[in-house]
Amino acid sequence: MRFPLHITTDMIVYQLRQALRGNRRYPFVLMLEPLYTCNLACIGCATERHTGKLQDRLPVEVCLQAADDSGAPVVSICGGEPTIYPELPELIEGIIERQRHIYLCTNALLLDEKVFGLVAPHRRLTINVHLDGMRKTHDYVCAREGVFDKAIAMITEAKQRGYHVITNTTIFKETEIEEIEQLCKELFALGIDGMLICPGYQYQSVDRDIFLTRDDMHEKFKRVIEISQRYRLTSTPMFLEFAAGLREYDCSPWSTVTFTPNGWKGPCYLIGKTATWSWDEFWNETDWDYWESRQDTLCQNCAMHSGFEASVVRGARKNPRDLLRLAAWNFLG
Ligand code: SF4
Predict the structure, then answer these.
(1) Phi and psi for 69 in degrees, rounded to 5?
(2) Mutate to test the pocket of ligand 1, among 269, 270, 293 (most ligand atoms within 8 A of CB)
(3) Cα 243 from chain centroid?
(4) Beta strand pairing call for 29-32 and 256-260
(5) Element containing residue 102 per DSSP (H, E)
C-alpha cells in the first residue's frame, strides 16, 4: 500500500464527513511553520523562510490552536528547520493527542540530536527528509558540503530505529533526471517508505535563474513518469501527468493552509498576499474562486503538489476511471 491504511482510512472518513456537511472546500493539510529559523540557506528557498530569529517562533499553544482551527487531518511541520524548534517534542505530542498525522519536514542535520531518543517512532509520525539530488547537487542546492552524507546517515539510522521515513525532492532547471533515478535507487535500497518529487516554484525573494520554465517542467516530468513505473513515488500519477503537461487542473489552494510566525498566510503556501491571526478572516475572506482559477501572474508556472494534489482527488470524484486508477495506485502500489 502506498499510504499506511490508518492514514488512508482517516482521510476517507474526513472527506466523507466534509461531504455530509456540504463543504466543497476544506483543508487536507496544515503547513505549520513554527519558526523561520534554519541551519541552512538553500538556494531555492524563500529568503523569509530561513532568516527569522528563534525568539520570534510561535508558542506551542498557538501552533496547537492553529491545528484545532484548521481541522486538517495532516499537519506538516516545516519552517524554517523544525528540529531547531526547542519545543518540538511537546508540539508533536500535542498534535498526536489530537489524532492528526504528522509529516516532519527536515534537512535531517539535527535528527540525531533533536529527534532520536526524544521523540519515539509513532504510527502518526512520518519523517520527511529534503534531498534535491545526489551528493554534488544536493550540497550545491543547500550551499554547504556534507549535507547529503549527513542526510543519508540520518535516513539510515531513522529506518533502523523504526521511524516511517519519506523524502522530498524538488526539480530545478539544472536537475538531471538520470540523477533523480540514481537517487531513487539509493534511497529505496535504504528502505524509505515513499518519495515525493515536485517542480520548484520561483519565489519572488529568490532571484537566481534555477527554476523550470513550463516547457522544461513538462519535459522533465515526462521522464519522472517513467521513473514512477519503477519506484514507489508518493506523488499521484495524475499529479505527475499534470506536471508533465498531459492534463489540466484548477488549483485547490485551500487544501493546504499555512500558519507561520506571521499568522495565517494567504492565499497559499507559496504566495503571501495576506497575513492574519484570525482563522475565520483567512478562511472566509480569501478569494478562493480567484486563486482556484490560476489567472494571477504568480500562478502561471506553478505546479506545486500543495495546490494540485487535492485537485487530483476532486477530479477523480467526478471521473470513475481516475477514481479506480487512484485506488489501485494507493492500495496495490
Ligand atoms: S497555482 Fe500555485 S501559486 Fe497559484 S494559488 Fe495555486 S498553489 Fe498558489
Answers:
(1) -65, -45
(2) 270
(3) 16
(4) parallel
(5) strand 101-106
Residue whose entry in the numeric block shows the C-alpha cell 472518513: 13
CB contact at 8 A, 82 and 130? no
Phi, psi (deg, nearest 5) at residue 280:
-60, -40
How many angstroms does the Cα of residue 312 sit away from the middle of ligand 1? Answer: 14
For the stretch 45-84, pLDDT in tens is 888 888 899 999 999 999 999 999 999 999 999 989 999 9
For 246, the grid coordinates are 498531459
Half-sphere exposure of 155 (CA within 13 A, CB side): 27
Helices (H), 192-264: 214-228, 237-243
pLDDT in tens, 144-178: 999 999 999 999 999 999 999 999 999 988 888 99
| Cβ-based burial of 109 (10 A; exposed 0-12, middle 13-18, buried ≥19) | buried
CA 118 – ligand 1 centroid, Å: 36
Q: Which of 88, 15, 78 is nearest to 255 (CA)?
A: 15
Residue nearest to atom 1 of ligand 1 (CA): 299
Instruction: Return the CA Rg of the chain.
Output: 19
Which CATH superfamily hosts domain 5-332? Aldolase class I (3.20.20.70)
The dihedral sign for the CA sequence 116, 119, 120, 126: negative
Rounded Cα gap, residues 28 and 253, in angstroms: 10
Instruction: Read off the C-alpha cell for 184.
Output: 531513487
Distances (CA, A) of 139 to 18, 77, 134, 146, 167: 43, 23, 8, 7, 16
- Does the model's pTM come out above 0.90? yes
